[in-house]
Amino acid sequence: MRQLIGLSALLLVLCAPPSHAQSRFLFGATGSLSSTSVSGDAPEDASYTSRIGFGFGAVAEYSLTSDIRISMQPSYARRGTGVGYDIGEEELRDSLSLSLDYISIPVMARFLSAGGSWFVNGGFDFGILLDASLEDVNTGSSADVKESVNPFDVMMIVGVGTSIDLNPASLTIELRYGQSLANAGANDQLTAAAGIPVRFRSSGFQLLAAILFPL
Amino acid sequence: MTRMLAWIVAGIAFILPLRESARSQEPAGSDTVRTALQGAGTLAAHAFVPTTFIRDPFVRTSLRSGLGFGMTPALTTSPVVIDGESVEGLEGNLLFALMAFEYQHAIREWLAVRAGLKVMGRLANETRPLLAQGVTLYGEFQLGWLFRVMQSERTIVSASLEIRNSSLTDVYLQRFIEGIIDSGGISRGNHLVEVTPALLGGGGLRMAYAFSDLVGLTANANLFYGESGDRAKGDTWTYMVMAALDFNLFSHGGPPLGFVVGASTGSPVDVPGTGDATTQAIFGRIGYTGSREFALGLDLAYDLVPVRNAESKQGFVSAIIDILLYL
């Protein structure tokens, strides 16, 4: 009964007539460039270095009020890190490259400024691991390490951006910071194979552009 | 250094548009929102005196910076024995320096996002404490949200939710030297420098109550879960509770001066070898309270903190110049 009441209340909220002229639902597409790395325990005599990644996907937004939206952005995202070893030179020498491919599902609250030109986002990014590979940069050989990485990831995300009106569509550009809350390492196989400890997790910045259309 | 520069640039890029955003969020011709989001937190004609040691529950846009220095006035550690030989020398002192920045941006009257950066370095001024305690550098990045839960004429309660990403660099000379002696040379597993990152997530409750236009009470309770700086402990819960009374003479029609006196207690220090003893502190502040644009004060504290190679907790005195700008 409680579930029925809850479902009815949710439907009532979602189907309520808009209080303003603009549509409550917006749909669109997004693309992103990211600079991600790994924080956590580093391998012996080595440090993690950042990697440029990319992502693309869809966007769905629902206006709770005229200035607060719930935004969901299911997308493909590649995260990763390099592992640079201290070999006695001034700079660390990258020897390994870890690539983590996720289906990323950010769920965020978007707070718009009065004119709607600026916004602040906050929420969580739920990730489902698609693929994980470890490449030896020097030899070019690559190994599948999906079994050594946790299949799910949760990131806390905060972003700030601007919205450009392209009547009837709108273009948004956003800078977002994300920090994984869960360890990516699932077991000590990566430690045995490449010296990467279990305690590591993704973090980094993302620059996103999205185009949204009212439904 | 490169990473720190990147953080500073990112911070500036983050703050500038947000500040513009805060202005653009104000409804035209209305000063109500601006008044609610800016200036010192006020309840029942009492303007609360801020201090770096306790966070107030007021949702507003502000930029805070702190610069501090501290020392142990009477360090008492166990004798330093290496390879059966006692190291002679003066007891000396532990010294530390602190630098902290925090930006909080009020998105709504009830909601703010905040980011903070804290760097603390600790060293010693004599051979014995330098060997036994080493040199430590602690850096912490905080990112979180502040929600106003309730507000009445005299009371305000807010909840916070945040993550803390920290790194502890520990240069432990005694361990390194003992390792060399034990293994007959420098071995691969014997590190002079250990870097231990830790991620914690959690939150807390903050409340403030105005007894009168002169006196106010602020209290915090925080609970976090995550990695310990002592990897042997695994993931742990940490807590911190604190309360402070503040006296604002300016709110009472007097000179623009405010005072704070308070106390706190919390979980053990997350450094290997420091044991499970909790930390305690008493703190205070004398500050200028005559401006709605900023607060300036000298924060003083006496902390009882467990350190390694010491049977009892050590007392630290610290002084921090705290500047809070209401944007």
How would you summarize this macromolecular structure in one to three sentences?
The complex is a heterodimer of chains A (215) and B (327). By secondary structure, chain A is mainly beta.
Describe the structure.
The complex is a heterodimer of chains A (215) and B (327). By secondary structure, chain A is mainly beta. In chain A, 9% of the residues lie in helices and 62% in strands. Chain A has helices at residues 2-15, 189-194, and strands at residues 25-40, 46-49, 51-63, 68-72, 75-85, 93-112, 118-136, 142-144, 152-166, 169-180, 200-214. In chain A, strands 1, 2, 3, 4, 5, 6, 7, 8, 9, 10 and 11 form an eleven-stranded antiparallel beta sheet that branches. The longest helix of chain A has 14 residues, at 2-15. The model of chain A is unreliable at 10-21 (pLDDT under 50). With 327 residues, chain B is mainly β. Chain B has helices at residues 2-24, 32-37, 127-133, 173-183; strands at 42-43, 46-47, 62-71, 81-82, 85-86, 94-108, 111-124, 135-151, 155-171, 193-210, 215-227, 235-248, 257-266, 279-288, 294-305, 314-326. In chain B, the strands form three sheets. Chain B has a twelve-stranded antiparallel barrel. In chain B, strands 1-2 form a two-stranded antiparallel ribbon. Chain B has a two-stranded antiparallel sheet with strand order 4-5. In chain B, a hairpin with a 2-residue loop joins strand 1 and strand 2. The relative contact order of chain B is 0.18. The model of chain B is unreliable at 8-37 (pLDDT under 50). Chain A binds chain B through residues 39-42, 44, 111, 113-115, 117-120, 122, 156, 158, 160, 162, 175, 177, 179, 181, 199, 201, 203, 205, and chain B through 10, 13-14, 17-18, 20-21, 24-27, 105, 107-108, 111, 113, 115, 143, 145, 163, 165, 188, 195-197, 199, 201, 227, 231.
Give the helix/strand layout.
The complex is a heterodimer of chains A (215) and B (327).
Chain A: H1 2-15, E1 25-40, E2 46-49, E3 51-63, E4 68-72, E5 75-85, E6 93-112, E7 118-136, E8 142-144, E9 152-166, E10 169-180, H2 189-194, E11 200-214
Chain B: H1 2-24, H2 32-37, E1 42-43, E2 46-47, E3 62-71, E4 81-82, E5 85-86, E6 94-108, E7 111-124, H3 127-133, E8 135-151, E9 155-171, H4 173-183, E10 193-210, E11 215-227, E12 235-248, E13 257-266, E14 279-288, E15 294-305, E16 314-326
Antiparallel strand pairs in B: 1-2, 3-6, 3-16, 4-5, 6-7, 7-8, 8-9, 9-10, 10-11, 11-12, 12-13, 13-14, 14-15, 15-16
